[in-house]
Each structure stands twice: as structure tokens, then as C-alpha cells.
Design brief:
520 residues, globular, 17% strand, Rossmann fold, 3 domains, 6-stranded parallel sheet, 18 helices, alpha/beta
């Protein structure tokens, strides 16, 4: 083994030279060589160094920065349970195709299985992420392949430097380029394109280029990124007659479609299916379709396909949505409509992201983020804090349980201009819209009411918080000048009432569309 200080200097220097500029660390003893090296690099203004006391939150924070920057971000911890706390964000980064350099400090290999303090097997700790178990120099450029990587670094005593050297002299940055592969030719006639919220890891510019070549109608799980996509499709496609009326011969799906049963049912009903997703080569190798592509085609031959039917039905649906009264859906619509251009918007998993898909009008001018790799509600606040590091203005929509799940993130609260809207329905609202709503002990097992005054909880962390209970109050809260961090608790009707409202609007849309297109 080489000297721990020299090993830390080599790793940090290589990462900086590869263009890694954000490092997220949690304090510890075994990772001291890295922390000291990073402190020296930060003093020279070579990196942005972020210190988080909780490893779980630190990893999600790094994930947020990576999403916002589309660059590798390093997250670093000491050994033992600290490393295990990276697991949720590591899994999200694998399935979401995000760029994380996960660095765990470790004891020397000779101490494994000896009962040594804070020592466990950290090799292959993260499923689907290869571990590079390091005790000497490694060429890091060779292991950064676009997805997350794990560097498990063995540090032996002494952990602190002996003397001082200018190990950062002559540093030259040669930015590592991370590009999705775009290749091949696709020949099709007419059909529909469905874009999953994760876009298969492709940038919105890459997808928009493909859309312009394809010339088909587009359904996007994220309508706020693709302004020309068809609005409200997830809502009216739940009607089998309308779905059949609109069914084309061919569907292309980019990425995973994970939000609404109606969209997936519609896709499955179509005769010829094409899937485009790079993860087919590794994670999703059992995914099936008539044609499966792991690369986005750069040449497309197709027929221009009219979307007149879709436009007509969407207009009818929009008229019915406009009649909705105060609800979770009206709150989400208002936030999405009013947040300013050149902002970032993070959308929490569970109910909020589904309401955006079904009820938000397509628009441009904002960058949208979500944790759709595994769609968990954990680590959402930390991820939002990470995203906000790269934008002048950031907004977020979360459910109340998502907020509480990551409430400890407020101990290292963001100093960015960030406003978080919390949809407070006192529990797990999505379950009231799922089949288990009629299960025995539903409220205890699924509804999980927290019965907390969220404003008091949030203000206890020294965070500015306000509460709104109606549309006019929400409109004012969205439009208020954004300076620093604040949270808006959006008090909405009960979960049971919301489920009834959703059922009602779905039925009203179905009836109005059937009448409007003579399907009644």
C-alpha cells in the first residue's frame, strides 16, 4: 500500500483534472486523507466542497447536483454503516442513469474478517455498481463510463499528512465528455411517441431532435419539458373507448413509462411496439417489444402523422379540468403554470408527479427534475437542495410524507433561492386512489396519517414557512419574490375527498369527450 496522503492526493487530483468540480463529504476518521486534500483544493478555489453530516442525505444531495449539471459528482464517506447509507441514492443513480463517483474509505484489506473496529466487506456493496478496491494508484479516467462508479479506498495509518507539499501544482483540467450514443437508422410509417419521465437518460435536446425527425404526435410523462406534447392524455386514455378510437398501428417508447396505468395499457394495446432505452444493455435486459433499441436513432424515415384527433380531445378535457375546485390537482396546475421561466422544478414521487402528468399544460422555460430511477420518496429534500446549487431559482412540489421522510435535510438547509411546496393531506394520498383503498386497516397500514402541524415542524429547523388553504393564497405564494429558502404548506382537502374528486373528473372527462367526438 502507498502512503494514505499520497493516495488521497492522487484520487482527488485526477478527479479535478477530469472536470469533477463538486465534492460532497461527510465527516469521519478513516476518510480524513480525502477530507484534508479536498479542503486544500477548496481553499485554492478549484472545487465546490459541500459538507453534510448525514451520509444518506449527502448522497442524494450529490445526486441532485449531478442531475442539474449532467456531470460526475463525488460523494465521500468513512467506513462501516456510513457507506451503507449511500445505498438508496446509489440504487437511484443506477436505475436513473446518473453520474455519481461514490467514494468509501476503508481499512486495509488485511484487517477484513479480523474483528477490526468499523470494518465490514465494502466490496460490491452497491448492487449493479462495480467496486474498484484501491490500495495503490488507479487511472480513474478508465473507470468513469457514464454511470455511477464505486471507489473503495484502503487507507492505512498514518491518516494525516507529514509535512506539506504543493500537490496541486501544474493542474490541467481536461473535461471528461459524457455522451449518450446516438446511432442507426429507423424506418417507420405512422404512430405515436411516448416519452418516459426519465427520457431513457437522453437530454431534452436529443429527444427534441428525434421528435422533429419523427413527425409524430407526442405523449410525454413530463409535459413541462416538451411544450408541443399532447396534454392530459393520461386522464382521457383511461376510457377504453377513447383509447381504442385513438390507437395507432405503432408506438415508440423512450425510457420507462412508470406513472399511469392508462398510458401503459394504451401502449400494450398497440400492435407494433418499439422501445428505445440504453439500459436494455445492462439493467433491463429482459425488456421486450417488437423492436428493441439501445440507442436513439440519428436518422429517421417516417410519415408525417396528424394529431388533430388528439388536439380536439385535449381541448375538451382542458375545459373540464378548468371547472375543478380547490384540490391537490388545482394546486399542482397553479404552481406549474405560474413558476417563472429560467427556473428549475423538482417534482416529488407518488401523487404530485402523477398530477403533473395528467393535469399540467405543456410549457417551456423550465428545467424539470425527479427521482424516477426507482421512484422513491426518500431523499427528496436533499436531492432538491443539490439541484438548487446549479440554478438561480428553484421550485419543488412534494407530498407531506416525502417531506417528513427526509426532514433531517433541514439540518444542512440550502442557502439557494428555493421554494418548496408541500401538499399536505395528512398522509399517503396516492393509496386512496389505488385498489388497496378498500383494504382492512387501510388507514393504519397505507393512509399513515402523521397528524403533525407541518408549519411548526419546519419552523423548528429555522426555515421560513407559510401556509395556504385556497387558490388565491397559493397564487400569491407562487408569485412572491424568491429570496433564500422557504416552504409553503399547501393544505388541501382530505385524501378521501381527493380520491372522489379524481374519480369525478375522470368520469366527467370521459363523458364530455365521448359526446364531443360522437362516441357516446
Amino acid at each position: 500500500m502507498i502512503n494514505s496522503t499520497k493516495l488521497a492526493h492522487s484520487v482527488v487530483r485526477q478527479l479535478i483534472e477530469l472536470g469533477v468540480s463538486d465534492f460532497v463529504v461527510s465527516p469521519g476518521s478513516r476518510n480524513a486523507p480525502l477530507l484534508i486534500a479536498l479542503g486544500e483544493a477548496a481553499d485554492k478555489k478549484l472545487i465546490d466542497l459541500h459538507v453534510k453530516i448525514d451520509e444518506r442525505g449527502a448522497a442524494f444531495f450529490a445526486l441532485g447536483i449531478s442531475k442539474a449539471s449532467n456531470n460526475y459528482v463525488a460523494v465521500i464517506c468513512t467506513s462501516g454503516t456510513a457507506a451503507a447509507n449511500f445505498q438508496p441514492a446509489a440504487l437511484e443513480s443506477v436505475h436513473g442513469g446518473n453520474h455519481l463517483v461514490i467514494i468509501t474509505a476503508d481499512r486495509p484489506e488485511r484487517l477484513r474478517k479480523t474483528g477490526a473496529n468499523q470494518t465490514t466487506n465494502q466490496v460490491d456493496l452497491f448492487q449493479f455498481i462495480k467496486t474498484h478496491d484501491i490500495s495503490s494508484d488507479i487511472e480513474i479516467r478508465n473507470v468513469l463510463n457514464g454511470g455511477p462508479v464505486h471507489l473503495n479506498i484502503q487507507f492505512d495509518e498514518p491518516l494525516l499528512p507529514e509535512g506539506s507539499i504543493d500537490w496541486l501544482a501544474g493542474l490541467k483540467i481536461n473535461q471528461l465528455k459524457i455522451n449518450n450514443k446516438v446511432d442507426k437508422k429507423l424506418e417507420v410509417s405512422t404512430g405515436i411517441l411516448v416519452i418516459g419521465h426519465d427520457r431513457g437518460g437522453y437530454s431534452k435536446q436529443e429527444i427534441k431532435s428525434f421528435v422533429s425527425k419523427l413527425k409524430w404526435p407526442v405523449i410525454s410523462e413530463d409535459p413541462l419539458t416538451f411544450e408541443n406534447s399532447i396534454p392530459f392524455a393520461a386522464l382521457y386514455l383511461s376510457d377504453p373507448k377513447i383509447s381504442e378510437y385513438l390507437k395507432p398501428d405503432t408506438v415508440i417508447s423512450i425510457g420507462r413509462t412508470t406513472l399511469s396505468r392508462s398510458i401503459n395499457t394504451f401502449i400494450n394495446s398497440i400492435n407494433y411496439k418499439i422501445v428505445i432505452d440504453p439500459r436494455i444493455k445492462s439493467l433491463d435486459s429482459n425488456r421486450s417489444a417488437d423492436l428493441v433499441l439501445s440507442e436513439l436513432p440519428n436518422e429517421v424515415v417516417s410519415q408525417d402523422c396528424s394529431n388533430a384527433k388528439w388536439v380536439s380531445i385535449s381541448e375538451i378535457t382542458g375545459n373540464e379540468i378548468g371547472k375543478m375546485t380547490w384540490s391537490e390537482q388545482q394546486a399542482v396546475i397553479t404552481i406549474c403554470n405560474l413558476i417563472p421561466d429560467e427556473s428549475a422544478l423538482f417534482i416529488g414521487s407518488s401523487r404530485p408527479i402523477r398530477d403533473v402528468e395528467s393535469f399540467a399544460k405543456p410549457r417551456s422555460g423550465i428545467e424539470v427534475f425527479a427521482n424516477r430511477g426507482l421512484a422513491g420518496i426518500d431523499g427528496n429534500i436533499s436531492t432538491i437542495f443539490g439541484v438548487s446549487e446549479k440554478f438561480n431559482k428553484t421550485f419543488a412540489i412534494l407530498g407531506d410524507l416525502s417531506l417528513l421522510h427526509d426532514i433531517s435535510a433541514f439540518t444542512n438547509a440550502s442557502k439557494s433561492n428555493l421554494r418548496i411546496f408541500v401538499i399536505d393531506n395528512n398522509g399517503g394520498g396516492i393509496f386512496s386512489t389505488l385498489p388497496q383503498a378498500n383494504a382492512n386497516n387501510f388507514e393504519k397500514l397505507f393512509g399513515t396519517p402523521h397528524n403533525l402541524d407541518l408549519s411548526s415542524v419546519i419552523s423548528g429547523f429555522g426555515v421560513s414557512v407559510s401556509k395556504v388553504t385556497n387558490l388565491s393564497g397559493l397564487e400569491s405564494a407562487v408569485s412572491k419574490e424568491l429570496k433564500g429558502l422557504d416552504v409553503v404548506v399547501v393544505s388541501v382537502p382530505s385524501r378521501e375527498e381527493n380520491a372522489k374528486k379524481l374519480k369525478d373528473i375522470t368520469q366527467r372527462v370521459s363523458s364530455a369527450v365521448r359526446i364531443g367526438i360522437n362516441l357516446a
